[in-house]
Design brief:
Elements lengths: L35 H12 L2 H11 L6 H12 L7 H11 L3 H11 L10 H8 L13 H14 L3 H14 L3 H14 L4 H15 L6 H23 L2 H9 L7 H17 L3 H18 L2 H14 L2 H17 L3 H11 L1
Helix pairs in contact: 1-2, 1-3, 2-3, 5-7, 6-7, 7-8, 7-9, 8-9, 9-10, 9-11, 10-11, 11-12, 11-13, 12-13, 13-14, 13-15, 14-15, 15-16, 15-17, 16-17
């Protein structure tokens, strides 16, 4: 695949972060999907003409085939729509990659810390399925689609289906997608294989130090790594002081996702250490940060912490608000998490 500079804009500025938006020059609207006809049209627009695309590909291949032969192959590829692209599909994807706006959109659907996870599960599947076909499914970008499908399955507590999507994602995951896979798969096995889960988080931390990404993505990934370790300290090791120290190292400012992760994790740690007042202050900040980011799932989690720091009717009201959010999102994993914490 040809090398292109990585998009380092913040998540909310990327075109994929609004499922209904079609930015000027986008290769495909989110609801339209993206087939070989769209892909070849993008190549022709990028190079000027289809003949110019064929000429560029012929040069890359050392003129092993004539320009005319390649142009005819591209015309046949254009008619394949969402079917297997065959030899020439693989060759053009290797040579030119997929459009940046397509990669950005499927990345938004595959990253846990975007607002994609705030959509109802049925809508998530509706948005993902058009991208789970060629040419995207034959490109490295397929890793993001599989990660998105794994996330939807995990939210529905469909563990075996989630594992299958994670296996498919692993085969294509490179760079940032590899980082996402490490954290997603760590979460999936955290209760059954805690040591292996921690090893994957540690690998993710090493990879995080080497990759280029936006400042917001970096802050969110760092918060996620710390949260994995903090959960392990709190739940597996029962070392709440160690968990508190980890969360306190995260900055108080930054993207709302990172702020919620910090205060929510810190609040539960403080509560387990007997500091209800400190935990309550964290819960209030977490609820506010989730509201700032427009994140319903994070808000439900923060409300669960808030309920744990309150008593009587106030606690029950916060719990019911969190439960209502989980119901609206059809998020079985969130419902179970809320019930577990109530118990």
């Amino acid at each position: 695949m040809s090398s292109r500079p990585r998009d380092t804009t913040s998540p909310d500025e990327q075109p994929g972060h609004d499922p209904g938006r079609r930015a000027e020059g986008d290769s495909a609207g989110a609801s339209e999907g993206f087939d070989w006809g769209s892909y070849v049209a993008w190549l022709a627009q990028r190079h000027g003409t289809l003949a110019a695309v064929a000429d560029a590909l012929a040069a890359q291949r050392g003129h092993a085939e004539s320009v005319g032969t390649i142009e005819r192959a591209l015309r046949r590829l254009r008619a394949r729509q969402g079917r297997d692209g065959g030899t020439w599909g693989a060759r053009v994807l290797r040579a030119f990659g997929v459009p940046d706006d397509v990669d950005s959109r499927v990345r938004w659907m595959g990253q846990y810390h975007t607002r994609f996870s705030d959509l109802p599960r049925s809508l998530c599947l509706e948005l993902l399925r058009p991208w789970d076909r060629p040419p995207v499914s034959e490109s490295p970008s397929r890793a993001w689609v599989q990660l998105g499908l794994a996330g939807v399955a995990l939210r529905g507590r469909e563990q075996e289906l989630a594992r299958e999507h994670l296996r498919r994602a692993e085969r294509a995951a490179e760079g940032l997608a590899r980082l996402e896979w490490l954290l997603a798969s760590s979460f999936a096995i955290s209760r059954e294989e805690p040591r292996q889960a921690q090893a994957r988080v540690e690998e993710a931390e090493r990879l995080l130090g080497r990759l280029e990404m936006s400042a917001d993505d970096r802050a969110c990934y760092r918060a996620r790594c710390v949260d994995h370790h903090g959960w392990h300290d709190n739940v597996v090791r029962r070392d709440h002081a160690a968990a508190r120290a980890r969360y306190e190292e995260l900055p108080r400012d930054g993207p709302p996702f990172g702020r919620v992760r910090r205060d929510n994790g810190l609040g539960w740690s403080l509560l387990r250490l007997g500091d209800r007042e400190g935990a309550h202050a964290c819960a209030v900040r977490a609820v506010e940060a989730a509201g700032d980011g427009g994140s319903l799932r994070l808000r439900a989690m923060a409300l669960s912490l808030l309920a744990a720091t309150l008593e009587g009717q106030a606690a029950e009201a916060a719990r019911q608000r969190a439960k209502a959010i989980a119901e609206r999102l059809d998020d079985e994993a969130l419902r179970v998490r809320l019930d577990r914490r109530r118990g």
